[in-house]
Specification:
Blueprint (H helix, E strand, L loop, with lengths): L1 E5 L3 E8 L12 E7 L1 H11 L4 E8 L3 H10 L3 E7 L4 E8 L4 E6 L7 H15 L4 E5 L10 H8 L6 E5 L2 H8 L5 E2 L3 H8 L6 H13 L4 E5 L5 E5 L2 E5 L12 H14 L4 H16 L9 H8 L4 E3 L1
Parallel strand pairs: 1-4, 1-8, 2-6, 4-5, 8-9, 9-10, 10-11
Antiparallel strand pairs: 2-3, 6-7, 11-12, 12-13, 13-14
Helix pairs in contact: 1-8, 4-5, 8-9, 9-10
Length: 309
């Protein structure tokens, strides 16, 4: 079982306009609401790969039906701690003429100490039956920046491996608990290093610091430049595949899902990396918030070219 944690779920509301005018009147051509959040995205992608997947986290009764329907349709189990009211809404204004998206993201609903204690207990109860625990995304207001560290420490000894995909202090503090894998992007790695990383060798050397700290795997997404993964003394790099990009929403979450699927199957690092790259690429080839096509994903694996750095 792969368990994904969603502490700050969101409804992503996409508004399509023609020629967005800041400060002016913009007429909406179409709109759509989708249950989302990094933890939700990871869980759904794991299910799309044919693995047992579940999502646990905070949920809000006024918005629950949208989340429950999306998870159930995609055969993803869930277990939530409930609050009254609606989930946060992230507004994405898509200017069709310029192919540009403007994002307005809410911070989320404030959680309290009682809710955090209940969440820690819930995570521990699921960790006992999980092979991997994926902690990703933002934290709601009222949740301390070290909460991912708290959760990783809480499940220590319960038999699951922890994967951390966060930024800022959430990543820095979470690293202290030595998760099995982290997945920073180049910007996040540069922020922790305190300087720019302009070459693949510089990225590799910065990532190796966290291997020496006790993290077993470091996967770095490099956007247009592809991605890199390190484990032990191995450092592998893959260029981005030349495909028509239809959406980048959830690409990083899909990479995490593909990598964890490879580790679950005890594949060699190179094959696991192919799975992560193929999964992220399949997401980029998929319009909107649709789930990836497993047939496309499998075909892409043979196209990933990997080199040692």
């Amino acid at each position: 079982m792969i368990t994904s944690i969603s502490l700050n779920p969101s409804i992503d509301r996409t508004l399509t306009v023609e020629g967005f005018t800041p400060g002016g009147l913009n007429r909406v051509l179409s709109s759509s609401d989708v249950a989302a959040g990094k933890g939700i995205n990871v869980a759904l992608t794991v299910s799309a790969l044919g693995l047992d997947s579940e999502c646990i986290g905070f949920m809000y009764r006024d918005s629950a039906s949208l989340f429950e329907k999306r998870l159930m349709v995609n055969s993803t189990a869930y277990d939530f701690i409930w609050y009254d009211g609606p989930a946060r809404t992230n507004i994405k204004v898509f200017d069709r003429s310029a192919s540009v998206v403007t994002e307005l993201n809410e911070s989320g609903r404030t959680c309290d100490d009682e809710g955090l204690k209940a969440m820690t207990d819930l995570v521990c109860s699921h960790a006992e039956n999980s092979d991997y625990l994926i902690l990703s995304g933002s934290l709601p207001p009222g949740c301390p920046d070290d909460y991912y560290r708290t959760l990783i420490n809480a499940v220590d000894g319960l038999g699951c491996r922890c994967v951390l995909d966060a930024d800022g202090d959430r990543l820095r503090l979470g690293l202290e608990a030595r998760p099995f894998m982290i997945k920073p992007n180049r910007f996040e790695l540069e922020s922790m290093a305190g300087h720019s990383l302009d070459t693949l060798e510089a990225v590799r050397d910065a990532a190796r610091k966290y291997i020496r700290m006790g993290v077993e795997v470091v996967a770095v997404s490099l956007g247009e430049d592809g991605a890199m993964i390190l484990q032990g003394k191995e450092a592998l790099y893959a260029k981005r595949l030349n495909i028509e990009v239809k959406s980048t929403v959830g690409a990083g979450d899909s990479m995490v899902a593909g990598l964890v699927a490879g580790f679950m199957a005890e594949r060699p690092l190179e094959e696991t990396f192919r799975m992560g790259m193929a999964c992220a690429t399949a997401r980029c080839m998929t319009e909107g918030y649709r789930i990836i096509d497993r047939t496309v994903y499998k075909a892409l694996m043979d196209m990933v070219v990997i080199e040692r750095i």
